[in-house]
Amino acid sequence: MCLICLDFQNQRLTLDEARRAFGEMASTLDPDHRAEVEEMLEQAAHDEAESND
Ligand SMILES: [Zn+2]
Predict the structure, then answer these.
(1) How far is the CA of 38 from the centre of ligand 1 (A)?
(2) Distance, CA 8 to ligand 1 centroid (Å)?
(3) pTM of the predicted model, to two decimals?
(4) What is the pLDDT along the chain (53 residues), one digit of tens a residue?
(5) DSSP conformation letters of 29-40
(6) Which residues contact 26 (CB under 8 A, 6 or more apart)?
């Protein structure tokens, strides 16, 4: 768990903002968690695409 997860899950960051934050912070996350955050953002993008149908 990092600031990106925390803020995104508390809806303090939009998906775009979370992606930007991830781009800036990715190098500071450990590789396992980096993969988890990537997955979280991908899942969110997928969910968003479906809800826009
Ligand atoms: Zn995190």
Answers:
(1) 10
(2) 9
(3) 0.87
(4) 899 999 999 999 999 999 999 999 999 999 999 999 999 999 999 998 998 76
(5) S-HHHHHHHHHH
(6) 34, 37
